[in-house]
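R.M. (postdoc): so does anyone remember the format we settled on? I'll just put the structure tokens first.
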């Protein structure tokens, strides 16, 4: 090692470099100053580079910087050697340092070219700024998008919250509605179940889809049995037509309610009267679509009505009998007259036969008179029998004018006896009506007898009874019985149709009440009015239209 160093430093072999400058102080000073300045500058660069490398840990290619630093350090050293060799001819050391510098510069050059493509690929500051700007824009863009997203998210959350609140409200409302519906259904169901009248719902096939307890009890079938039965199946044979009509009415969808009275045959064969009321068919969307019907058992009412009707008939017969009783003397006289004539004509015939030769023409005339009087007496008797017979009311075609004439024939004697003159004005072409002839005659008889009674006390004027029949605009047959009697005062007129109202000492007060009920049972009307110019007028109107069932 020592020999290598002494070899490097062999000044004895060479002359100092200053000699080449002839030791001219200015030239030497120039070289010394220049080389020293260069060396100083060169030495400062590696320090700066090392400092820079140390500080910038993210630096790309730090090796290049280190190599460059070493290379420049070596270059600086060559300039130091330039100063050194001015006085010391250590040219081997100088050459060695240059060789090191050469190796370092070549290595650095190679390294620089090697990393050149990579270094070129590194973005420039402008590019970095551009990229930075783009990135900034991108970030801004993203931030805006994020803000919009956040806003959309907030809006969505608000919507969700609002919808949730609405849904909760809707759920609460529905729960409320359901509760109301349940309460309503329970109320209706309890009414349906607990109702004292029968309630049933008929389905589209006219079967009892539902029937309450009351209806099941009424008819004797269970709800299940009724489901395979329809109204026609339980309706009495004679009333099926009414039931059919009702079904057709309901099926036709007419809006009105429909009521009918008919008979049902119960499960045990009993027959009951019912009043059935149906309404329009229920909405098909309701839980139990169909036609609701309310069924009332009116058997008792019908029985009471029947009893009332029978009582009225009995009363009517009784008053008729009473009236006929009143007429008994007149009727006896009425029959006595033709009987007297018969006896008289019989005796005359005997006399005509006793002469010789017998006067047969006279006998024939006498016998004709006997037959005619016999017929008259027989007619009176048959009329009386008709009025007195105890038969049930019977309806048929009635000629109102003929009925009036027959009553007048019955009362002729009574009228004569009370010096009542009768004026009859009967419209000839009156249509026949369907009615109970005897009952109709009872009404006319009652009005005639009342007229006679009202004129009993009249002494200062003519006693006139006017009977008129006519046809009004609605084709009602109107019969008027007017008298010139005492008349009716306003207060009495209100009450004369009440039962037991009478102003007569021996009156029953039943005549007008029964007459009114008879006329009303014939769908007619009976009324009273002041007579013109004096007395009272009673009238009744009966419908004559064909098809009136009485
Ligand atoms: P009654 O003849 O037994 O009294 P009615 O019912 O026939 O029963 O008559 C009731 C009452 O109406 C009579 O008592 C009488 O006061 C009154 N009345 C009926 N017809 C006439 C008439 N033509 N004129 C005046 N009053 C009459």
């Amino acid at each position: 090692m020592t020999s290598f160093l002494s070899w490097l430093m062999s000044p004895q072999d060479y002359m100092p470099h200053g000699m080449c400058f002839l030791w001219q102080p200015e030239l030497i000073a120039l070289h010394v100053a220049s080389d020293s300045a260069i060396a100083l500058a060169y030495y400062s660069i590696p320090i700066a580079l090392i400092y820079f490398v140390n500080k910038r840990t993210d630096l790309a290619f730090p090796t290049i910087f280190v190599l460059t630093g070493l290379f420049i350090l070596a270059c600086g050293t060559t300039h130091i050697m330039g100063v050194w060799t001015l006085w010391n001819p250590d040219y081997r050391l100088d050459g060695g340092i240059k060789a090191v510098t050469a190796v370092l510069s070549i290595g650095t050059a190679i390294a620089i070219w090697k990393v050149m493509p990579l270094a070129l690929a590194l973005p420039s500051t402008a590019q970095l700024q551009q990229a930075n700007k783009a990135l900034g824009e991108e970030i801004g863009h993203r931030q805006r998008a994020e803000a919009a997203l956040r806003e959309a998210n907030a809006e969505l959350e608000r919507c969700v919250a609002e919808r949730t609140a609405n849904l909760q409200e809707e759920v609460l409302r529905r729960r409320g509605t359901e509760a109301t519906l349940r309460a309503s259904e329970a109320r209706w169901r309890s009414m349906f179940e607990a109702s004292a009248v029968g309630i049933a719902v008929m389905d589209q096939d006219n079967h009892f889809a539902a029937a309450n307890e009351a209806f099941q009890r009424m008819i004797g079938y269970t709800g299940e049995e009724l489901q395979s039965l329809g109204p026609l199946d339980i309706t009495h044979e004679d009333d099926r037509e009414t039931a059919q009509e009702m079904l057709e009415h309901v099926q036709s969808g007419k809006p009105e309610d429909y009521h009918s009275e008919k008979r049902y045959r119960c499960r045990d064969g009993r027959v009951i009267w019912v009043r059935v009321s149906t309404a329009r068919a229920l909405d098909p969307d309701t839980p139990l679509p169909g036609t609701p019907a309310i069924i009332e058992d009116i058997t008792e009412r019908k029985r009471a009505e029947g009893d009332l009707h029978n009582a009225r008939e009995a009363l009517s017969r009784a008053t008729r009998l009473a009236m006929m009783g009143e007429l008994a003397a007149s009727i006896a006289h009425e029959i006595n007259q033709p009987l007297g004539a018969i006896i008289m004509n019989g005796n005359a015939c005997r006399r005509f036969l006793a002469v010789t030769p017998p006067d047969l023409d006279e006998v024939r005339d006498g016998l004709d008179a006997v037959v005619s009087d016999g017929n008259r007496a027989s007619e009176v008797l048959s009329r009386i029998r008709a009025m007195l017979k105890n038969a049930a009311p019977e309806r048929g075609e009635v000629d109102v004018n003929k009925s009036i004439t027959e009553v007048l024939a019955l009362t002729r004697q009574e009228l004569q006896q009370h010096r009542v003159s009768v004026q009859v004005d009967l419209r000839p072409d009156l249509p026949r009506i369907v009615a109970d002839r005897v009952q109709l005659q009872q009404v006319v008889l009652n009005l005639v007898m009342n007229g006679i009674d009202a004129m009993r006390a009249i002494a200062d004027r003519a006693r006139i009874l006017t009977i008129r029949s006519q046809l009004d605009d609605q084709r009602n047959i109107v019969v008027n019985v007017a008298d010139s009697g005492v008349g009716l005062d306003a207060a009495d007129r209100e009450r004369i149709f009440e039962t037991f109202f009478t102003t007569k000492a021996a009156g029953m007060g039943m005549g007008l009440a029964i007459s009114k009920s008879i006329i009303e049972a014939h769908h007619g009307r009976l009324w009273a009015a002041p007579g013109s110019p004096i007395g009272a007028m009673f009238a009744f109107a009966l419908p004559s239209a064909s098809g009136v069932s009485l």
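R.M.: ...and that's the designed sequence above, right after the tokens. Also worth knowing: Residues 195-297 form a domain with the Beta-Lactamase fold (CATH 3.30.450.20). The first helix runs from residue 2 to 8.
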